[in-house]
């Protein structure tokens, strides 16, 4: 009996720790999904996401009827990652060789507004949230004194949020515990630009915006924020930013703002813009602009074509003051 038990134990120890089923072919992602190093622990070094429309070499399934597939993600460390089977489609050829991936499908024509670019007038935002770290020491020569600052870039439709985000991170984002969210793997240069253009990084706003909205953008955090900063640059070098900078301490109207958008980015651009205001004592101050965009963002020069094909929106508040830097 003891010999039988010993033999069984040796046999169990000789079995592989995992039961992957080898597969050949390729896996084409249809969604942006996390690519895990470990399924059970859901570890994802580098926060790697699959890119919709891209084909990946297929290595194995986690079981004979897999819930996850082991694929090769070039450039990731490590390269072999697990993705959920419903993240895409898989194909093999009859000889079991890796088949050539099909040509990428043409990008679908998007009808309506694909993204909302949300920008703050930071001095006014700080009047409403004076205890925020980024609002404690505003100076007249700060970037935010005369430029729009980045709030976020929000994939539409509304509710397209928290894509493949673990429950714990979603809870931290929704409860305002943004510093509990993972740090983003941004390059030093982009992080510098973001710290200037998004003062809310002092409150970990960039982590919240990525968790809630950026995870649905379909790229890495680096690419997501590079696109958002390109759109902000286009806005801050336009007649719209000049209108605000030239009227600090004075009231402007929605009509003036929309006319400035038309002048800078083409007729009808202003109809894609909404202005938000807040009461502040006996004043009404402009706190935010939200701008509809549709299409592929590849640089600041795209702004005019992107806003042109977005859907018109209601204008929001009719007028408000351009608040000067510093708390009142």
From TrEMBL:
Annotated segments matching region Disordered: 171-193
Residue ranges that the Swiss-Prot or TrEMBL entry lists as coiled coil: none
Basic and acidic residues composition-biased segments: 171-182
Pfam family, one: Ribonuclease_T2
Keywords: Signal
GO molecular function, one term: RNA binding
Signal peptide limits: 1-19
GO biological process: RNA catabolic process
PANTHER family listed in its UniProt record: RIBONUCLEASE T2
Record-stated family: Belongs to the RNase T2 family.
UniProt name for this protein: Ribonuclease
Organism listed in the record: Devosia ginsengisoli
């Amino acid at each position: 009996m003891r010999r039988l038990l010993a033999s069984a134990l040796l046999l169990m120890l000789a079995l592989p720790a995992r039961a992957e089923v080898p597969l050949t072919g390729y896996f084409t992602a249809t969604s942006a999904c996390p690519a895990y190093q470990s399924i059970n622990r859901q570890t994802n070094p580098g926060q790697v996401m699959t890119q919709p429309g891209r084909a990946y070499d297929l290595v194995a399934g986690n079981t004979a009827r897999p819930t996850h597939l082991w694929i090769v993600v070039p450039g990731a460390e490590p390269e072999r990652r697990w993705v959920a089977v419903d993240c895409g489609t898989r194909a093999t050829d009859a000889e079991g060789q890796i088949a050539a991936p099909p040509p990428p499908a043409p990008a679908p024509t998007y009808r309506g507004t694909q993204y909302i670019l949300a920008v703050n007038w930071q001095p006014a935002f700080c009047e409403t949230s004076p205890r925020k770290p980024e609002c404690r020491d505003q100076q007249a020569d700060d970037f935010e004194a005369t430029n729009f600052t980045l709030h976020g870039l929000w994939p539409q439709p509304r509710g397209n949020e928290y894509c493949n985000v673990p429950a714990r991170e979603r809870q931290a984002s929704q409860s305002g515990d943004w510093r509990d969210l993972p740090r983003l793997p941004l390059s030093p240069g982009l992080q510098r630009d973001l710290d200037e253009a998004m003062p809310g990084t002092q409150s970990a706003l960039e982590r919240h915006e990525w968790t809630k909205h950026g995870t649905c953008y379909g790229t890495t955090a680096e690419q997501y924020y590079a696109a958002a900063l390109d759109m902000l640059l286009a806005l801050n070098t336009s007649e719209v930013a000049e209108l605000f900078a030239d009227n600090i301490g004075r009231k402007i109207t929605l009509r003036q703002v929309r006319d400035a958008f038309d002048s800078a980015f083409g007729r009808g651009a202003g109809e894609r813009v909404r202005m938000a205001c807040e009461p502040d004592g006996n004043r009404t101050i402009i706190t935010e602009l939200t701008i509809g965009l549709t299409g592929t963002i590849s640089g600041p020069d795209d702004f005019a074509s992107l806003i042109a094909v977005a859907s018109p929106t209601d204008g929001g508040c009719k007028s408000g003051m351009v608040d000067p830097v510093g708390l009142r």
